[in-house]
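Interim report, section 4.2 (structural modelling).
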Amino acid sequence: MLRTATCGELRADHVGQTVTLCGWADKYRDHGGVVFIDLRDRYGITQIAFRMEESSETQKLASGIRHEDVIQITGEIVSRGDENKNPKLSTGDVELRASELKILNKSKTPPFEPRGESLANEELRLQYRFIDLRRNALQEMMVLRHKMTQSVRNYFDELGFLDIETPIMGRSSPEGARDYLVPSRVHEGTFYALPQSPQLFKQILMVAGYDRYYQIARCFRDEDLRADRQPEFTQIDIEMSFVEQEDILSTIDGLLKRMVKDIRGENLPTPLPRYTHADVMERYGTDKPDLRFGMELIDISDLVEASGFGVFKNTVGNGGKVRGLCVKGGAEKYSRRILDNDLKNLVGEYGAKGLAYFKVANGGLDSSIAKFFNEDEQAAIVERMGGEDGDLLVYVADSYDVSCASLAALRNHIAKDMELYDPKELSCAWVVEFPLVTRNEEEDRWDAEHHPFCAVHPDDAEYFESDPSKIRALSYDLVCNGYEAASGSIRIHDPETQQKIFDLLNIDPEEAELRFGFLLQALRYGAPPHGGIALGLDRWVMMFAASDNIRDVIAFPKTQKASDLMMGAPSIVDDRQLRDLSIKIDIPE
Amino acid sequence: MLRTATCGELRADHVGQTVTLCGWADKYRDHGGVVFIDLRDRYGITQIAFRMEESSETQKLASGIRHEDVIQITGEIVSRGDENKNPKLSTGDVELRASELKILNKSKTPPFEPRGESLANEELRLQYRFIDLRRNALQEMMVLRHKMTQSVRNYFDELGFLDIETPIMGRSSPEGARDYLVPSRVHEGTFYALPQSPQLFKQILMVAGYDRYYQIARCFRDEDLRADRQPEFTQIDIEMSFVEQEDILSTIDGLLKRMVKDIRGENLPTPLPRYTHADVMERYGTDKPDLRFGMELIDISDLVEASGFGVFKNTVGNGGKVRGLCVKGGAEKYSRRILDNDLKNLVGEYGAKGLAYFKVANGGLDSSIAKFFNEDEQAAIVERMGGEDGDLLVYVADSYDVSCASLAALRNHIAKDMELYDPKELSCAWVVEFPLVTRNEEEDRWDAEHHPFCAVHPDDAEYFESDPSKIRALSYDLVCNGYEAASGSIRIHDPETQQKIFDLLNIDPEEAELRFGFLLQALRYGAPPHGGIALGLDRWVMMFAASDNIRDVIAFPKTQKASDLMMGAPSIVDDRQLRDLSIKIDIPE
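Predicted structure of the assembly:
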């Protein structure tokens, strides 16, 4: 090694030793007779002192050092003394008095400094990713990601799960998101597809008797990207045989407990809370509730159906709902201007035609529409909402679905705005008993809520004929901080049930064969009861790091246009390459 | 869980307990009053006994069980007694006396039995991979692979390496093997490429200060496949900063020691032996020698240059070499017919015009050409070769390169034929000091022996002008059992040296920029000295398993035509998908 120690390990006990360090020149300060350089590597920063009275050759070299030069320094560790020590650095008790210096590599002046919060624009940072990745914040993110995956691997290894690699070059299954395709050279005119998930393979592994499988698997979706999506992403993928829903849930409870212990040294109480899908829709308006704060949705339909306020009355009369939130201490925070503009627009994005609101004052309601409610009605509303003077009450009067969607968005918005939670907190819960199917009115059919392989709740077989919307799937999501952090189900293991589901979804046998043929085939040869789940690793790293930028947790991320700005991908390729693949470019005019 | 124990864990101490097992009906035997079923899962086999006098309902069900049905059985564990116990099974002391039976899933009659050595042809087995993967041999292979990767991960984690994921969708670098391409939908007419290795990314990570990186990385090459290659394969990829060659070698020595300990419980003596490239070429004729046996190449040029045998004499006179092998006890094994046909043809494939041979008898040579050598010459040859009566001496008289290639192949052939080694033995060694470049006579230029980023041996700078063939690279291969099991180098870390290498390789600046632009850019901003290595995981699993079929160590392998026969990939895709990607199929007539 070109060093005998790292820049993060020197302490007071090392004083008097001679060591060699290597690293990058992070900061440079010339204090007359002494030049100080902060030497940086992945492990920390050590202060180097070059004293003028010492070796003049070294001195000369040192004076030429610039930011980000790579240097090797040998010298004696000396104490910085009480007055000069730097408590912010783990190595802050000491400094290295340089006696030898070698410049291992010079650096051009970097386009931005890889220190602290970067002020450079993200495009430049992505283009010079090798500079940006030197920032402490990003290095910590990569270390965190490593620790998390190692924690996951140890957990599953100890439980007897096998890490089995599934193919990246698979078969296109044209549904849901778009596949990325790979033209085959050998079989002209045909294509591989990159997997959107290893779903079919992990089920096949259960049929093949592997019993407990996990993989940290790369997945691909050719979607128009939202801010928190990447074209390639990573999931912790799990499947188990001879299990029931409870076994999967408790296995994942254990995984999270382990990760929280390994990463934060904290105890995560388990089992995690469980809610039914119907319950979270009622209380939070979404199947991905952020549980770091309360402020649940409250239904006042019954209190206002006979009121003098036409909007409320008519909504309830027409089968809709009047639901709202009680924003504790929100009366002062939210002016009429914000309510009538920003917040009204926000709920409008989710289809709500308006936003009604009151302030709680003197135990009653205060607003321009308060006059439409008599004293009893006002008291009942305040009581139902748990309102106190100074609180803000906001309502959406609309269909159940619109009130859910709009109030869920409003709840998240207000909570963030009012800082109702600690961004570092992890608040996880299970949502179970999802509906098996949802109505696709446009195409007049039933769509699978998750995918067509979810098993059916044993009590709900009767609804196949009478009302498929009532069929509950044996599927479950883990929600954390308002995100779907994991999703899974018990799978169908017999071909007859699978056929019944395809019939319900209007997938004809030919289409089923084309899309899932090899899985259907496998189910006919002794498939065990099995189930599984997948956790989005990128999202989990973000949550542990309290980051809201997915590009911060991936070493080489792509932009929202799916470009890698550093390497310049995608790019134009040689005609010869296309000829070899029997394809040509065909851009419509 | 649907079971309370697995099929591999019941022992004599469990007698008297009631347990529930789940698994596949492996074997079925009706012994009049008792039906025996071997119940199988990943963990083992447990014998189940259904006695006729017990529950008749269960009895009736049991009689309908067929191979590969999935069943759940509850019953009492009873001792099989000394006379009936099966020492071949870990559970062989006991059986489960079934009181309840549930058929969880029926199986169609499988196309072949997933037991023992499969006699079915490989195409059928790949098509029904979910059946074939039930075979014990394949399950053991997947468990081995899991254990090996876990061992690798623990080793590197403990040493402070970070597991960092690099992109699968990258940029095409048209050289060497063909890239698999992925058309971009967003950027019409452009393509991503699947990585042939994470080489550039891992170097970038060093530039970014990550210091120690590893990844078990999927790599892709669109080659016409040889028997032991797959279009997607996995490598253990490693890079370190501030290191010298010695540090990489000792890190990998430690890795192998750890793996051998974890997997086989044995101590692998380290440091592993090291040979120079020149040395192994001289002694084994190849840079991938199989060191499980001796039988080195021996040069007798000096002994025969004045002999009466024209072929030898002229070869040496023209600057060629006469080299050969001493096959211990081979005189009887190899008849003149085999020598003149099979073995002569084998060396002929590597360009050798003939194969000369003698048997050692009475301390001298015995063959049709022995008469051309006088007694002293014969004695000198026998002595040089270490020959004893009954040995076979075989020679190729040709250029140095042809004698290397042909004798290396012959050496491997004979060793396998004569069973000179234990297939399970692991015999590893380092080959160092590879030449930096090799002459490409056809195109009149120098090609990189490994890749253009290898650093140069510090003593060899002078040869850039005088004789580039003499430049040694700081590159190293780990050879094991005749395979290149790992390959790596210290990298160039400064842009000037990199430019010098590009000049030597005749890569002009524009081409360099196009192919490696982002790495060259990164070297200008403070790249540390660094180096690394990559180990082929599939190959390592094969070596630990003593398997010679790469498809046995990959859960879902592809054929030599790069097809996945189970899922039917590659396949035809929708026209809509191609339109979305702005490509069309263009098969030449």
